[in-house]
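protien #1 (seq + structre)
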Amino acid sequence: MRGRGVARRVAATVALAALAAGCAVGPAAHRADQEASEAPVPPAGGPTEDPGPGLGPEPDGTDEPTDDPEPPAPGSDPAPAEGTADIAETVAEGLPGGLCCVAELPDGDLLVGSRTTGTVSLVSREDGTTTELGAVQGELLALAIQPASADATLVNVVVYIAQSPSSRVGVHRYYPDRAPGQQWGDTAAWLFRNLPLADAHNGGALAFGPDGMLYVGTGDAGQPQLATDGESLAGKVLRMEPDGGIPDDNPAAGSYVYSSGHTDVRGLAWDGDRLWALDAGTVQSVVPGGEPVTVWEPDGGTPAGIAASAGSLWVPSGADGLWRLPLDGTSLVAPPQPLLADDLAGTDAIAPAADDGTLWTLTSGGLLRLDVT
């Protein structure tokens, strides 16, 4: 029975007691200076192209102010062993196939990306109307929206793209006030151009943390030795300023590396000030300056994403529907709880909403809103 296998893996969380310090930064392997080709560069100049994030003024000549990020949330009480998940609303149907990702804009509308076509579409939160905005060049693996005020005149949208011979991370601008279908800035400012790309283990995860920093999850490109190589960006969680700079308080000075020893990071989720990763099908607690600790590995199915809400992690996994992982710090209160097995089979992506206790999921060409406890 699945529960016995889960209980066995939950026992591994005892080893996480040493992580009670949460996000205390520890030593990490030092990495050489970033190669010039990987450094953030502005897009090619031209009067019709959008400037990259932080690289140019607003179209009207004024700089868009950036709100100070909210401080990390304090540790919460342990979640109850059991919770609920209900489909509260079908926001949109008939979305294009091969969906990979969904993210909520500051004004409440949503962006949905297609892995296979690279298209990015806007879904109206008010009536579910879907408008294709544009497309990226390559396979779209992930997107993330930089926090901004609800009335911002532009929003930075980070994309993770696989485009032979390498993967790359860049920023497009979204302009809420432009006419429908014209809100997408086609020109990206590239933060990284030469992330490893292979036949497998290419990673592809993005998330903004409560500290306002951008976190990027990569894969080991089928070469496990690279995951612990401080000179390589493969098999890592990277931490950077939204404009691509290296934060002064990273675990190792002058290095983007936040966590090493990963295999294939396909999802990142923040529970307060704790970072979790979905790595090669396992749920891991990310250790700043160290290697991750596996908290749960499902007996079957392929997890399609990870999100944190209402004191728990939520992991959609094939025919199993949705798994709820109740948290107590970096440990699980109880074995993961399966929910909505008959309703969320084939889920393509999951993401938290702005309001705690709400999740967005992409499944069978539809965008759903879930209420969770």
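ok now protien #2
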Amino acid sequence: MRILSLGVPLPGAPVDNHTFANAPTLFDYDAVVADPRALSGLIEETVSGDAEHQTRAGERVVNGSSGNDAVGLADLLRSRRDEAQRLLDRGGLVVCFAQPNAVHQGVAGFSGCDRYCWLPAPESLHYGEPLLRRGSGSEIIVLEHDHPFGPFMEAMRTKLTYHAYYDETAPGFAGAANVIARSAGGAAVAVQLKVAQGSVVFLPPPARPPTSEARYAFSNALQDAIRHALNVASRSAAPAWVAEYDLPGLSERIAGRDAAKATAEQANAELLEQEERVQELDAYRALLWQEGAYGLGRPVRDALALIGFRVAPPDADAPAQLHLEKSGSGRRVALLEVEAGIGAAGMAAHYRLRRRLEEAIAAGHPKRGLLIINGHRTVAPADRPPQYDDALRIAAESLRYCVATTEQLFHAVRAEMSSDEVTVAAFRERLLTTEGVLQED
């Protein structure tokens, strides 16, 4: 899990803290946390010239046209909106500490600029009047304690103060929003909005910035809520074509589950057992259509472990290594990266893997690499175009690491479950010896 925090200081290993100007690309993260006042400050300072801001590439942010060593403020804001849209399109999460909207004048080339101009909204909604209204209060009542952000709100509610609330009569709100907490008078002060394939969660901000140990407690609680939210989102419904990809014994387990559901007198304990038995196998079909650290990263690690690798660490939050014991002595090690999307896999995962490979070389422990991809994930595997860009193929051949698809891994899982040890052993060997894209047999 990777979190980008914009204007909200959050200590913690998974969190990168930056400004709206110098942050890396938003869609390279699983979640973004933002204080919209930080963007307002950047806009006002750039327009007035009271302070200078730079991008991550060292370009000055100017209130004008983009040039050789400068980026126009309007272009920066549009880029951030495009990046946020792409993050949400792939199921990402944006957590925003809500403030009333503010319109900024004088931004060259950008009419109607406001502090939420970077954040996509559900269709027919806008992060201003009549949806987002100015208000203030400190009494917050958590409604959904089992919501991913419920425990965070409960733990921090005495330290939060809402500055805005949501008009639930605004057209389109009811179909897009889930109210997490209300004020003492019943106003919605914490909500989750469905945007594209992802979510935007608006929370009341801290009454005052946490300091010292309180800042770590605040950050840890927020990270737990984000981790839970991403994990819940990874359990969305599978596409219909997944049913065509059977696994040995899965149909029988589904039949057992359905029979238990159809028989009213079946004990709840039996139904739960049948459901767990189905999920034990059905989870591997996520290899064919899921994405993200929890949705895909976890099934990939489980599948590799099933076919004979030792995966360390098994937790999807940290980069993984694969270990395979040699027949004699010692072991072989490969660094694992996973990439998925609605299009072909590009170079993002290559850059992550290359950095790790170079660090291993610098440490005197060179290792192989393995990149598992799930390109065009919403299309049935048999109908997919090439799942990787040609640039990725060339890069993999150059660095001599293997690129394999989740479909290939799925078939290896099926072979393992069918006790086809010869096929599984050959697949393991090919993962560790292929230089470039692993071709079908």
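The chain has three domains: 3-233, 240-284, 286-437.
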